[in-house]
């Protein structure tokens, strides 16, 4: 007891007030904050767009919604549902093809399965490249390659999906319990048997979850794809915008909003149940 | 049937796992390897199915030097030498029966196994082995629903379904409580005697080793310091193997009274 007390006193004497963070860390943090704030200020000066202008702009947005978009032309819905179905089809085919392609490729991009360093790095690199390309650019590319229509939309979403699932799934594969892999190898199983009986059962729920997540993204993305001619509801959205038929535009936006919300809701519920 | 001829193993970082091991294990023996952690027990066992690669010497399994086997021959060796692990190494999300059937992979063609088309005889074999370790009623449950002792029994059933000639068990009961440890060891000994399997088990509890082994092999710093039937084991033997006096921690304890075990009693 007494020795404890003296130790405490010693600590107290040593340096007076004790700070939780070191001085070096404090200086570093201050510097980082200063740099970030400076970048913001420079951005405002360079683009001549300051918060006041944004706030003033709200009025225009409000007027646009109140006068132009409202009320939506609900009769127009009879012309909306067909391209909407096309958008859904593009999304579901793109997701399906992408998910099927991504599965085998994910194993090639997982370091614990693909022991060949170069092969592994090449596939990692491909996934990273795919994910830097925005889906609109992919769509433009495929429209140029195969022409205007659904096919280019499906192809663009397939590539997008391979990028999303491939990246996420290969990381899931790398974080599995290595024990079963060891067990299958020790029992004389080959690589494919290791994948089928030690790896796949461990990542299957994630694979389904990532596929549903891709579907959510793809439904939204396929709306945009129509703008560049890759099929779906985006095409009529662009047409009606160009003709200033804002009551029709409002119907299209409202429909997209409802459908996307429903799909996201169902998908989220299913994914929650997948652990 | 298993013979180490001057086998050494140096790990890439320079650590000497095994130093000039000479050892012969006959068919049907139940051998326990004892030694402190880091003494080379795992390395010795894993050399036999080439999960690690000896750096010199010859290792004869079934009349054949296995130190240089490649892919297909290596898988052939491993099909014949089953393994049980400390952490069970089963897939917890998979059903018990599926886990046990995974033991057949070495005997099953790639396409067949990918599609899950196991012959009915394999399923019968798997179920029979589950019965032998007393968990056949759990065949269709998820492995994660079973207790630790039952999960280790899944892996015993899996290794039996593999129909090997040799079973290697690397600290099979180190993750289990004392009573369960005894039950699992009894099961392992029972089935390996019934099938006439050569069984090599790593254990670090002295009393357990004495209770189940036919023969004890002692390792210390990668060297073989004792090899003989349990009748030749004296209390001094373990002092020699451990390189220090024996402590309470080196004993697991009996089924019910884990505390009071005297080394003099354990080693007659």
UniProtKB/TrEMBL annotation, chain A:
GO terms for molecular function: ABC-type phosphonate transporter activity. Residues 84-267 form the ABC transmembrane type-1 domain. Keywords: Cell membrane, Ion transport, Membrane, Nickel, Nickel transport, Transmembrane, Transmembrane helix, Transport. Pfam families: BPD_transp_1 (PF00528). InterPro entries: MetI-like (IPR000515), MetI-like_sf (IPR035906), PhnE/PtxC (IPR005769). Belongs to the binding-protein-dependent transport system permease family. This is Phosphonate transport system permease protein.
UniProtKB/TrEMBL annotation, chain B:
It comes from the Bacteria. Residues 249-268 are annotated as: Disordered. GO terms for molecular function: ABC-type phosphonate transporter activity; ATP binding; ATP hydrolysis activity. InterPro entries: AAA+_ATPase, ABC_transporter-like_ATP-bd, ABC_transporter-like_CS, ABC_transpr_PhnC, MetN_ABC_transporter-like, P-loop_NTPase. Keywords: ATP-binding, Cell membrane, Membrane, Nucleotide-binding, Phosphonate transport, Translocase, Transport. Residues 2-246 form the ABC transporter domain. The keyword Nucleotide-binding applies. Gene3D superfamilies: P-loop containing nucleotide triphosphate hydrolases. GO terms for cellular component: membrane. PANTHER family: AMINO ACID IMPORT ATP-BINDING PROTEIN (PTHR43166), PHOSPHONATES IMPORT ATP-BINDING PROTEIN PHNC (PTHR43166:SF6). This is Phosphonate transport system ATP-binding protein.
């Amino acid at each position: 007891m007494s020795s404890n007390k003296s130790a405490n006193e010693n600590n107290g004497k040593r340096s007076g007030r004790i700070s939780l963070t070191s001085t070096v860390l404090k200086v570093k943090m201050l510097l980082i904050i200063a740099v970030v704030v400076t970048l913001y200020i420079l951005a405002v000066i360079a683009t001549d767009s300051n918060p006041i202008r944004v706030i003033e702009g709200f009025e225009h947005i409000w007027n646009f919604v109140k006068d132009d978009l409202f009320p939506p032309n609900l009769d127009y819905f009879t012309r909306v549902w067909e391209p909407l179905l096309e958008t859904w089809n593009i999304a579901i085919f793109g997701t399906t093809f992408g998910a099927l392609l991504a599965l085998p490729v994910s194993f090639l991009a997982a370091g614990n399965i693909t022991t060949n360093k170069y092969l592994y790095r090449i596939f990692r690199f491909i996934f990273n490249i795919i994910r830097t390309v925005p889906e609109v650019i992919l769509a433009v590319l495929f429209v140029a390659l195969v022409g205007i229509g659904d096919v280019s939309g499906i192809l663009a979403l397939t590539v997008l999906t391979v990028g999303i699932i491939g990246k996420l799934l290969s990381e899931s594969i790398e974080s599995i319990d290595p024990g079963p892999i060891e067990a299958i190898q020790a029992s004389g199983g080959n690589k494919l048997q290791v994948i089928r009986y030690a790896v796949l059962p461990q990542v299957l729920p994630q694979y389904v979850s990532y596929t549903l997540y891709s579907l959510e993204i793809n439904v939204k993305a396929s709306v945009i794809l129509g703008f560049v001619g890759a099929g779906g509801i985006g095409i009529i959205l662009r047409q009606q915008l160009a003709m200033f038929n804002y009551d029709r535009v409002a119907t299209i936006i409202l429909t997209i909003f409802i459908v996307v919300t429903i799909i996201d809701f169902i998908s989220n519920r299913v994914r929650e149940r997948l652990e | 049937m298993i013979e180490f001829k001057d086998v050494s193993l140096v790990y890439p970082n320079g650590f000497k796992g095994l130093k000039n091991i000479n050892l012969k294990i006959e068919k049907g023996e139940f051998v326990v390897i004892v030694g402190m952690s880091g003494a080379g027990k795992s390395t010795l066992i894993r050399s036999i199915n080439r999960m690690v690669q000896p750096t010199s010497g010859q290792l004869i399994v079934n009349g054949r030097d296995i130190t240089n086997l490649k892919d297909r021959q290596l898988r052939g060796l491993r099909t014949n030498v089953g393994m049980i692990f400390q952490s069970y190494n089963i897939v917890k999300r998979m059903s018990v029966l599926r886990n046990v059937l995974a033991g057949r992979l070495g005997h099953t063609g790639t396409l067949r196994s990918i599609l899950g088309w196991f012959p009915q005889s394999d399923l019968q074999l798997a179920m029979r082995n589950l019965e032998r370790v007393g968990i056949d009623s759990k065949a269709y449950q998820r492995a994660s629903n079973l207790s630790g002792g039952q999960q280790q029994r899944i892996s015993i059933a899996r290794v039996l379904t593999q129909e090997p000639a040799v079973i290697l068990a690397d600290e099979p009961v180190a993750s289990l409580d004392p009573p369960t440890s005894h039950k699992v060891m009894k099961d392992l000994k029972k089935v390996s005697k019934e099938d006439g399997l050569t069984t090599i088990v790593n254990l670090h509890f002295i009393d357990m080793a004495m209770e189940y082994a036919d023969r004890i092999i002692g390792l210390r710093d990668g060297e073989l310091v004792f090899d003989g039937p349990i009748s030749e084991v004296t209390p001094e033997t373990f002092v020699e193997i451990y390189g220090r006096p024996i402590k309470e921690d080196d004993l697991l304890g009996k089924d019910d009274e884990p505390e009071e075990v005297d080394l003099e009693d354990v080693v007659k």
